[in-house]
Design brief:
20 strands, single chain, about 25% helix, globular, 8-stranded mixed sheet, alpha+beta
């Protein structure tokens, strides 16, 4: 019964939104909304545990989430994602500077010692600490594997800054150094053994942990210190359904654009570990009420890092379990060789394994199927690609430099790879639907617009554009064509006098772009403008609808 509640909640929410759209006007006076009205108090929410093993089985074999051709449900009337407890528009809407992107979520220059050990995990492949620094701030500290010094910490700090720039909620992650003598044990310091049992941590436990990790030549240890997120932990989120005890969670997660578009960002940065176990929900106070804030975290398995070793050659190329290649391997008695196994990688331990020559955005895969990724439509991928395009190329190098690689080959190689993977993503997804963006109608009726593919230098100019003007009855949603279809070669056109001079409160234009190499450009884009005393502000945009 518990698994059915999120689905029922989602259906009721969707029916309510559909009914509201059918019975009310097409546009309301406050459209477009740039902040989700998350008005309900979520104080009664309880921690939601998610089993890593069940998450794998559910997504790999049980068909988690709806696989439909449903447009994203949480976009505003201009086809953008409003700010919410899930996402905050940053580089995509405000054109951040390189310095802003490089700073990322960080609010200080980082933690400082001495460090008080709160707890430690001395067993397993990935040892780590929970520590308090000299300011009493809580940090989760992870180390690099001896085989690949600087790799996991570098990947984590780089990816954190990019995911923050995209718009996601992420922790503050810092690269710093720790010395053994700076680690202070107390009576309350604990360690967790391989069975999950807690014991008092003693000096020999601390020394045993430090023997498993990478150590600098000067005797210090390079670490990734992740500052504890604000709020009360309440578990993780799934990439499908909704949380039954969160009254603000009304959109099925597989139909949230920021989770669908996450696939594009994950493909760029090779975040193959994009699954529920690497999400984190906290209960925070905002505007006098409690809300659930949704975070992404643990980016140690991104870029060329597999966290405790170099990324596997399978990562990004094949799910952990896939029927077809497994069957072929069986039928050929193991002689079938996956093509990605033949890919060569340079020997740069600080980077691990990541490449751009074999990489194709449409073929990239996470560890196992993700319902939100599977539901992504061309307009969702276009939205994400535009955000990536908004990151200047010089910012890519500047962010990589924050990893502080000591191998002189690491930074230029990673810059080259991310630049090429970015180019491939922009080619694939800015050309996968109408590239028309940023429509504007002046008081005199001149329509101007941009072309995202041209502006990103991944396409030559369009042959022509066609525009069909209409008057919109906002109460019924009915469009009435005005004048003949216009054909222009530049990204501007003049609205007919008849559509401007009438009593219409709203007018619309259907814009099509035509390019011989990109047939998807010709898909119609509908834009809507509202009459005001000072002009015609944009109120609506529909891509692929």
């Amino acid at each position: 019964m518990g698994d059915r509640i999120p689905h029922v909640t989602a259906i009721l929410g969707f029916l309510w939104l559909t009914a509201a759209g059918a019975n009310g006007p097409k546009f309301y006076p406050d459209d477009p909304l740039w902040r989700d009205p998350e008005t309900q108090d979520a104080s009664s929410i309880k921690e939601l545990p998610i089993s890593e093993q069940y998450d794998f089985v559910e997504n790999s074999f049980l068909g988690a989430g709806d696989e439909t051709d449903q447009p994203a449900l949480n976009t505003n009337t201009v086809d953008e994602v409003p700010d919410s407890s899930w996402f905050t528009n940053r580089v995509g809407r405000n054109r951040w500077t390189v310095d802003q992107i490089v700073r990322g979520p960080d609010t200080s220059s980082g933690p400082t010692g001495p460090w008080t050990v709160v707890s430690g995990k001395t067993e397993g492949l990935s040892p780590g600490f929970t520590l308090r620094d000299s300011t009493d701030s809580l940090y989760f500290v992870k180390f690099d594997p001896p085989s690949n010094p600087e790799m996991a910490s570098g990947a984590e700090v780089i990816s954190t800054k990019f995911f923050h720039a995209f718009g996601y909620h992420v922790p503050e992650n810092y690269i710093t150094s720790i010395r053994r003598e700076e680690l202070v044990l107390t009576q309350a310091s604990e360690r967790e053994d391989e069975d999950g049992h807690e014991h008092r941590m003693r000096p020999q436990d601390l020394d045993a942990l430090l023997k498993k990790v990478s150590r600098n030549e000067d005797g210090s240890y390079r670490v990734l210190a992740s500052k504890a997120l604000p709020g009360t932990p309440v578990g993780r989120f799934r990439y499908h359904g909704t949380r039954p005890d969160d009254p603000n969670d009304i959109f099925p997660h597989e139909h949230r654009r920021e989770l669908r578009g996450l696939r594009v960002f994950a493909a760029w940065l090779n975040h193959d570990d994009s699954r529920s176990i690497n999400t984190f929900d906290t209960l925070v106070e905002e505007g006098g009420r409690k809300l659930v804030r949704h975070h992404l975290l643990d980016f140690g398995s991104t870029l060329g890092s597999g966290s405790v070793q170099a990324q596997s050659t399978r990562a990004g190329n094949e799910f952990l379990w896939e029927r077809r290649p497994t069957l072929i391997t069986m039928l050929t008695f193991g002689f079938y060789v996956r093509p990605w196994i033949k890919v060569d990688y340079p020997d740069i331990p600080a980077v691990g394994r990541i490449e751009a020559e074999y990489f194709q955005p449409d073929d990239w895969k996470p560890e196992y199927p993700n319902a939100a990724f599977g539901n992504a439509r061309p307009e969702d991928r276009f939205w994400a690609a535009r955000i990536i395009a908004a990151i200047p190329e010089q910012a890519i190098g500047a962010v990589i430099e924050t990893a502080r690689y000591t191998d002189p080959a690491a930074t230029p190689y990673l810059r080259k790879i991310l630049t090429e993977r970015r180019r491939k993503i922009l080619v694939a997804y800015l050309n996968g639907t109408s590239p028309v963006v940023d429509p504007s109608l002046s008081a005199s009726g001149e329509l101007t617009f941009g072309n995202a593919a041209e502006e990103a230098n991944v396409a030559t100019p369009a042959e022509r554009y066609t525009i069909q003007w209409s008057a919109l009855d906002n109460n019924t949603g009915v469009l009435s064509s005005v004048g003949a279809e216009q054909s222009v070669t530049e990204r501007r056109a003049q609205a007919p006098h008849a559509v401007l001079s009438g009593s219409h409160g709203y007018i619309a234009a259907q814009v099509r772009a035509f390019h011989p190499d990109h047939p998807a450009w010709s898909q119609p884009l509908m834009v809507y403008f509202r009459r005001t005393g000072s002009g015609w502000p944009l109120v609506g945009l529909e891509r692929n609808r």
